[in-house]
């Protein structure tokens, strides 16, 4: 599943080709994604793309008429730049032909993605309005995390994976960030001190930044793999390493299913 780093990598990859170009044509070959592709999407034809931004795992193309095209990659979606004459692959569901001769293609075998046209402020849209701060922006502070944790006795891992607390911390990143911060994933969130939560905030930022920085290869790996980010795998401390020795202390990594997600930790580096 594309996580925040893959989505940010996609944003950076398409932005130079898409920004300040005019939309010549919108071609929808298959409308039945997670929600149907907006029936008024073709109204962006003749308009320009004025921004390419990201909120959580949603890409937003700002259009010169004030609307936005929201794109979510779902479980298996990807965007790539083609030429209009290029053969359409199976699962290429939509193309936006641009004035510069390129075409942005949306490809999604499992059709869990979204392509919607939003009129009005995207931040107020039901999909976006309840989202917490971006992990790499100023709003994600130890104090914010402390207040989000203060009345929650759920395991800390579950809390940092909650999009209302902070967006974009998927299972892999949560497990790794907790290891780096020396925090047991199952400790109740409201038991953690501000210094511990500061360490966690820092490690979440560090791990997502590292994943984005290695993003050039991410996308390629991602497209060809079964969904695990291959670039990251060599560097993982705990995720998916059940029973293997901790890279820091050699203790066997432990594993438990928590909230239907696999949770791994080192019992020595992450004491309860
Ligand atoms: Zn260890």
Distance between the termini: 30 Å
Shape: elongated
CATH architecture of the largest domain: Orthogonal Bundle
Cα radius of gyration in angstroms: 20 Å
**Structural class by secondary-structure content:** alpha+beta
CATH topology (level 3) name of the largest domain? Helicase, Ruva Protein, domain 3
Low-confidence stretches: 216-230
Strand content: 15-25%
Q: What is the mean pLDDT?
A: 91
User: What is the number of independent domains?
Assistant: 2
Report the CATH C-level class of the largest domain: Mainly Alpha
- Identify the bound ligands: zinc ion
H/E series? HEEEEEEEEHHHHHHEE
- The portion of residues assigned to helices is 25-40%
Number of strands: 10
The biggest sheet amounts to: 4 strands, antiparallel
- Total number of helices: 7
Strands of the widest sheet, in order across it, are: 1-6-7-5
Can you walk through the features of this model?
The chain has two domains: 4-124, Alpha-Beta Barrel (N-terminal domain of MutM-like DNA repair proteins), CATH 3.20.190.10; 142-265, Orthogonal Bundle (Helicase, Ruva Protein, domain 3). Helix content is 27%, strand content 21%. The chain contains seven helices and ten strands. The strands form three sheets. It has a four-stranded antiparallel β-sheet with strand order 1-6-7-5, covered by helices on one side. The longest helix has 20 residues, at 194-213. It is elongated and about 60 Å long. It binds zinc ion. Residues 246, 248-249, 251, 266, 268-269 line the site of zinc ion (ZN).
